[in-house]
Structure formats: C-alpha cells, structure tokens
Amino acid sequence: xxxxxxxxxxxxxxxPELGPALEHEDAREAFRKKTRDAxxxxxxxxxxxxxxxxxxxxxxxGSIALLRDVRWYDLLLVPIVxxxxxxxxxxxxxxxxxxxxxxxxRILYDRHTPMHHRVFIARDMAIRSRxxxxxxxxxxxxxxxxFFITAPITAGLWLWRANLAYLFVxxxxxxxxxxxxxxLAYHLPKDHFIxxxxxxxxxxxxxxxxxxxxxxxxxxxxxxxxxxxxVRHTTYPERIPELD
Length: 244
Description:
By secondary structure, this protein is mainly alpha-helical. The chain contains ten helices and no strands. 55% of the residues lie in helices and 0% in strands. Helix 7 (151-160) packs antiparallel against helix 8. It is globular.
C-alpha cells in the first residue's frame, strides 16, 4: 500500500528553505538519499498508482452510467469545470505549494517546495527508482479527499439537475487523474517510451522550467495544460539552456 513520507522537517530538521540559489550537488544528493530512505519499507509504487486510478476511473464510470436524458447544454458544464480546475490547479500550486501556510496546508508545502523541488531540479527531473514515485505523486488518498472536498458543489448541482452533478464528478476526477499521470510522465527517465512522445516532451519542458530553482516561485505553475499560466502571464518566456 502507498504510505506517507515523513514531513521534510523530520527528514532534515536543519534544512533551510530553498531560495533562488542553486544548491551544491553533493548536498542535494545527500538530501535525496535521506528522503528516499525515509519512504516506509512497505511502500508500494504499484499501489500508489493503482489506488487513485481505480477510485478515479470508478467514479468516472459510475457518474457516466447515472446520466439520463442528457441535453446538449448539460455538456457545456464539462469545459467550464475543466477550465475552473485548471485555474484552481494554478492557484493552489502558486499559493499553497510555494508559500508556507498555517494549518493542514503546511503539509502540502512541506512535501512540495523543500522536498519535491530539492530532489528534482530542471537538469535532473527523472525518478531513479519506482520507489521515488512517492516523491512525485499525491498521497494515494488524495483523489478521494478531493472528491469529498468538492462534495458540496456536487450536492448543489444534483439539487439543480442531477446530470450536472454527474458530469461535474466525472470531469473533476478526470482532471485529477490527468494531473497525476502527466506529472509522473514528466519525471520518468528520458529513455522511457512515454517520455519520447512529442506532447509529453513539450509539457515536460514547461514543468522542468518550473523546477529551475531561481524560477519556481514565479513561473510555470500549471502541471497539466498551461492554460492558466498563459492567462495569468506566468509562462517563462525564455528557454533554459540546460534543458536543450
């Protein structure tokens, strides 16, 4: 089963937060080993990928199966929810994942900026073993958590028109899965067949640019499709030489 990793404060309590400066390679490698060693022995990367996929695809299939007498204007909700999800991804990444906040959101920050961004930098994006999936993917319960967090919206739509609630669930779950799978694809070794796909190479470059330490606080916050980066003018306009 997928297991939680210790917060970075426990893995490296004396580690300062990442700043704009590039870290010495030996220090980063030592931190990477310490972080990887902190992954529980019972961690299963297969379960970590499979559990959200089963939950998400099950909710999508169930929602589609419940649709009845769908009208063309019901389907308009799908692109609306997708765009809203893209905007939410951008905002959550920019704020919660890159700025330390009080409360439960601090856990997200601790897993992301001082851990994920220190292990994976622009010139070294690939996982080195399947166990490092724990350093890339959301916790396995994340997709269920998002389902329950958005449940009030689902309930409100169901009271208005049931089809809208089902389409909302299907779209949000599809978005979460696409976020997870694309993010993992960007961190696969470059010789992996998925990494060689043209669309993945383009999206990977966008994400790898965000992993350049001096740029990560201001640029390229979308992980899926960089629509909201384009809307908010946060797409970094230059090429990073080390990514060529």
